[in-house]
Specification:
Blueprint (H helix, E strand, L loop, with lengths): L2 H7 L5 H6 L14 H7 L4 H10 L13 H7 L3 H9 L14 H7 L4 H9 L14 H7 L3 H9 L14 H5 L6 H8 L14 H5 L6 H8 L14 H5 L5 H9 L14 H8 L3 H9 L14 H8 L2 H9 L1
Helix pairs in contact: 3-5, 4-6, 5-6, 5-7, 6-8, 7-8, 7-9, 8-10, 9-10, 10-12, 16-18, 17-18, 17-19, 18-20
């Protein structure tokens, strides 16, 4: 590491002295990071940043991870440097070793929307995909970043794109603790009942959520509670191990069939008895006429699984029936 790089990395006052002395800003350290890259993560005086920027010979230089100074500035939410690097001619669409662009890194790091908007203003491709097929919109959805999601949609982000596993931004948003991003995606035209490569729908993804807000929104917009995936599982089966009984109750109220059997011969009640320790979930299924005597391919019933689970509260529900 050069003296200048060390001074920048530690926000040392000798930075300006070294610059005046003609220190080379283009030399990289053992991680391939140039002085501009180190500046991207810090908070140096703006005049010093501009002085460094003027001496940079390659704005698109990459570190060992394939990241440019622009990517690092975007990831760090350094809006001043993002705009300055772009105005100096940096390419906003270069990707790192994982295929992530500056826009994806900005969306992924839960930055404010001004960095995202600046990148878009300089022609960042809102629909670029990384090596796993993920877009900036998917990263924003994962971070429950409402403002960034809005900015991306407003500037042409494709709501229907899928990653390599067949996931859409809506599926990712369905697992978030609140429904703000999910709501804006649906309001903007995202398809509710689309399925991934395993046949799993957005509603199924929402049942993994301990909070019921996403599920309620999807049901409100007509999500089909009885769609089955490639293994024969329904949303109710995925909800069977969720300790929040409201999730199961909401699906039942929306017409979910409690006695559907998957490819293993299991019903939602069997799965709940096997995995869930909340007796209210089991009771909700039984109250909805779930068959307590049905057996799976192994010849086991829901009561058998409850016994193996050694959950007295759940067993008590069966005994009360």
């Amino acid at each position: 590491m050069t003296a200048l790089a060390h001074a920048v990395g530690h926000k040392h006052g000798s930075t300006s002295v070294l610059l005046v002395g003609g220190a080379d800003v283009n030399v990289s350290d053992n991680k391939g990071r140039t002085v501009l890259m180190l500046v991207s993560k810090g908070s140096l005086d703006k005049e010093l940043i501009l002085a460094i920027l003027e001496k940079v010979s390659d704005l698109n230089a990459r570190d060992r991870e394939g990241k440019t100074a622009l990517m690092l500035a975007a990831k760090s939410n350094n809006s001043f440097l993002v705009e300055r690097i772009l105005s100096a001619g940096a390419n906003p669409n270069f990707a790192d070793e994982e295929g992530k662009t500056a826009l994806m890194l900005a969306a992924e790091s839960s930055c404010y929307s001004d960095v995202v908007q600046t990148l878009i203003d300089y022609h960042a491709d809102v629909n670029s995909v990384d090596k796993k097929g993920k877009t900036a919109l998917m990263f924003a959805s994962n971070n429950v970043n409402y403002r960034v999601t809005q900015a991306l949609i407003r500037n042409g982000a494709n709501l229907h794109m899928k990653d390599e596993e067949g996931n859409t931004a809506l599926m990712i948003a369905a697992m978030a603790p609140n429904g703000a991003v999910l709501q804006i995606l649906i309001d903007s035209g995202a398809q509710v009942d689309v399925a991934d490569n395993l046949g799993r729908t957005t509603l199924m993804y929402s049942t993994r959520n301990l909070y019921e807000e996403a599920l309620q929104i999807l049901l409100q917009f007509g999500a089909n509670a009885n769609t089955i995936d490639k293994e024969g599982n329904t949303a109710l089966m995925f909800a069977a191990d969720n300790p929040n009984e409201v999730v199961v109750q909401s699906l039942i109220k929306s017409g979910a069939d409690v006695n559907v059997v998957n490819k293993d011969g299991k019903t939602a009640l069997m799965l709940a008895a096997k995995e869930n320790r909340n007796p209210k979930v089991v009771k909700a299924l039984i109250d909805a006429s779930a068959d307590t005597n049905a057996t799976d391919r192994d010849g086991k019933s829901a009561i058998d699984y409850a016994s193996a689970n050694e959950n007295e509260a759940v067993l008590e529900v069966f005994n009360d029936e």
